[in-house]
Design goal:
18% strand; 217 residues; Beta-Lactamase; 2 domains; single chain; alpha+beta; three-stranded antiparallel sheet; 8 helices
Length: 217
């Protein structure tokens, strides 16, 4: 299936270089026309494998992002933009290497960085805050990802909520964030990868210790 080949190539390109392929890369590598490549990208976006911008260019292929959304993830040789805290902490498992994840607190702009590997939860007293519940995340996925951030502590989060006139979403420590992220994208670089269905996703959330209506539980 053409869309499957396009998806696999996009993800492999992101993993190896930190950037998405151009249309000409797709046409050359897969020996397809521009129209076929564009049709496949739209199909992949409709099935939530990719996020396209208003020009139908690849913006995100979770956990990879073509633009900075608050996180950088530095591997041994490659720099990736993490789409959010969830995606950033998922990257070391997906690419199977230790990385340095860096971000700033949205409230006070304090800089934070962690060495994160596939086997050990990172240390730190910071908290992750997810603003948008799971049943609304794809209504505006860029907004959703841009609001899955890490704060210094509860005080910083509360100040930010007042400043931005937002209601508190879901708060978790770094250990829980790492558990959520670690295997969420397992197999995504494989050709035959299949997205989780809603029931499997809910079971996964339960197994990593999440709770409540925010996660559909």
């Amino acid at each position: 299936m053409l869309s499957q080949s396009v998806r696999h190539f996009v993800y492999r390109q992101f993993a190896e270089t930190g950037t998405p392929p151009e249309l000409t890369d797709l046409t050359t590598h897969l020996n397809i026309s521009i129209e076929e490549a564009q049709t496949a990208l739209v199909e992949l976006a409709e099935n939530r494998h990719l996020v396209l911008n208003e020009k139908s260019e690849i913006l995100m292929a979770h956990p990879f992002s073509a633009v900075p959304l608050g996180f950088s993830v530095m591997g041994e040789k490659t720099l990736w933009w993490g789409g959010c805290s969830w995606d950033s902490f998922a990257l070391p498992n997906l690419v199977n290497q230790e990385v340095v994840i860096a971000t700033t607190c949205p409230n006070c702009n304090c800089a934070h960085a962690w060495r994160v590997n596939p086997d050990t939860a990172p240390l730190g007293d910071q908290i992750a805050h997810f603003l948008v519940p799971t049943n609304q995340m794809w209504a505006d996925v860029v907004f959703t990802c841009g609001n899955q951030r890490i704060f210094c502590n509860e005080d910083c989060l509360d100040e930010w909520l007042v400043k931005t006139n937002n209601l508190k979403g879901y708060v978790m420590n770094l250990s829980t964030l790492w558990k959520l992220s670690s295997n969420w994208y397992e197999g995504r670089l494989d050709f035959n990868y299949q997205r989780r269905d809603p029931s499997t996703a809910v079971q996964y959330f339960r197994e990593v210790g999440l709770s409540g209506a925010f996660w559909g539980l």
